[in-house]
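To the wet lab folks,

You asked to see what we're planning to order before we commit. Fair enough. Below is the target structure as tokens, and below that is the sequence we designed to fit it. If anything looks off to you, flag it before the synthesis order goes out.
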């Protein structure tokens, strides 16, 4: 963050929650790990000089702990101990930060007991974590424990972040693309008082660009591409991220590529990169829209991943369409203080015609009780039925034609799941090899085991009560 936007960040600490993933081996015995894990385990991170603008509350040993629960406990504990010094909060992705809030809701009493006694919980068995946290918990602090207990015992956790970390100036995390789903929840827990900052656009393959207006609204985030990071070319796409040309998914049609200086304002592209590390014309798979220029460098908005679609017939719904539809529909929950905290989808083709299934986890914004299950929202079934039809009304022309005219797609279904279901889903994917640091809730479920988990948590099911509106296009 440039100091001209938020001054004096060198006068406090950053509670950034970072996590590593255990290394794996390829069939031929070569070590394999994620790019972020490689960085955290490298000398560039572990042997870095002290930087007052990046003074983290988390000791390095807690970040490098392979057990995500032990790492989370220790990192949150360190953040709470230094709560009066924390000037910014964050994680790589918004989902990881909300995961931390969920962990805090379940475990704040134990965290307070650690602070009160000055002793680390016995379930923390990692030797490096116990060693470094003994310095953080150097003496018992009953007063601090009482402060945190008072805050966390409130009926509502709206604005809890500002109360626990009163000097925090913003939250930094990726909130674009599929992460935009988490913006309302982040605003709820900060009471809308902390800006949501998304500073950069990067991937494992390449660093692409920076956000020159970091304090802008999440919906207005645009990244200025940095030409010195690699050689960028662009594959033209249609208005919804669909290919304009007919060729195989893995092909790179060289004669159709557009270079950096010839992209057009308002048009959609998939980036194709040639990197210093040796990738040659690698298709990244993202959909970007050119929204402006800084000098001659294009400024792009991340729209979605190209291959995230749900389909049961000739219609194809991409991530952007699905997110826009759910965003419109969830507004119907607001009069009931209902907050949609997470969702995913599944194309159910077990019956004919097939239909879309949406799994929704809903949190009651006005009530926080001792039992997680008591957080479930009691909403009249007709409201959820209206949510179903509201989603369908926002889906594209082809989907509505299939539903209303062709009858090749059945009524959309919303299955409401228990609170904490998507935490369990995340645990499942982590157990299958996903990285907690880079985990994103899949917007379309393909794993049979993950689907079985979701269905085991369903508390109610609702279907669209009528066909969505559809008018034939005139020739």
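Sequence we intend to order:
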């Amino acid at each position: 963050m440039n100091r001209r936007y938020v001054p004096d960040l060198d006068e406090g600490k950053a509670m950034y929650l970072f996590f590593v993933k255990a290394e794996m081996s390829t069939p031929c015995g070569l070590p394999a790990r994620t790019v972020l894990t490689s960085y955290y385990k490298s000398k560039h991170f572990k042997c870095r000089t002290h930087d007052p603008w990046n003074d983290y509350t988390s000791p390095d040993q807690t970040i490098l702990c392979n057990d995500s629960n032990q790492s989370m406990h220790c990192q949150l504990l360190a953040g709470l101990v230094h709560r009066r010094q924390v000037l910014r909060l964050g994680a790589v992705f918004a989902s990881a930060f909300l995961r931390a809030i969920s962990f805090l809701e379940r475990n704040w009493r134990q965290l307070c007991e650690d602070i009160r006694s000055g002793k680390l919980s016995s379930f923390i068995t990692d030797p490096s974590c116990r060693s470094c946290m003994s310095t953080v918990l150097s003496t018992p602090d009953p007063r601090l424990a009482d402060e945190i207990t008072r805050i966390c015992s409130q009926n509502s956790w709206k604005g809890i972040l500002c109360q626990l970390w009163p000097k925090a100036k913003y939250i930094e995390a990726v909130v674009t693309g599929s992460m935009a789903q988490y913006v309302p929840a982040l605003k709820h827990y900060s009471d809308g008082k902390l800006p949501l900052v998304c500073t950069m656009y990067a991937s494992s393959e390449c660093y692409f660009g920076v956000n020159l207006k970091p304090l802008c609204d999440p919906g207005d985030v645009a990244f200025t591409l940095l030409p010195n990071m690699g050689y960028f070319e662009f594959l033209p796409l249609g208005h919804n991220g669909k290919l304009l040309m007919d060729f195989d998914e893995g092909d790179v049609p060289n004669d159709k590529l557009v270079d950096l200086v010839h992209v057009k304002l308002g048009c959609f592209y998939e980036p194709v990169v040639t990197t210093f590390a040796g990738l040659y014309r690698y298709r990244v798979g993202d959909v970007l829209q050119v929204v402006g220029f800084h000098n001659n460098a294009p400024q792009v908005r991340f729209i979605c991943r190209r291959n995230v679609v749900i389909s049961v017939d000739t219609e194809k719904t991409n991530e952007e369409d699905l997110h826009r539809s759910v965003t419109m529909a969830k507004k119907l929950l607001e009069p009931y203080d209902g907050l949609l905290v997470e969702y995913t989808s599944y194309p159910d083709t077990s019956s004919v015609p097939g239909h879309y299934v949406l799994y929704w986890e809903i949190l009651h914004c006005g009530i926080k009780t001792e039992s997680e299950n008591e957080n479930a929202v009691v909403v009249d079934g007709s409201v959820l039925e209206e949510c179903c039809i509201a989603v369908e009304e926002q889906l594209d022309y082809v989907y509505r034609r299939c539903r209303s005219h062709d009858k090749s797609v059945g009524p959309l279904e919303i299955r409401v799941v228990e609170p904490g279901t998507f935490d369990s889903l995340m645990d499942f994917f982590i157990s299958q090899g996903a990285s907690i640091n880079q985990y994103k809730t899949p917007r379309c479920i393909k794993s049979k085991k993950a689907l079985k988990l979701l269905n085991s948590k369903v508390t109610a099911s609702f279907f669209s009560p009528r066909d969505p509106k559809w008018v034939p296009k005139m020739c």
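Structural context that might help your review: The first helix runs from residue 35 to 40. The chain has three domains: 9-197, 200-305, 309-463.

Thanks,
Computational group
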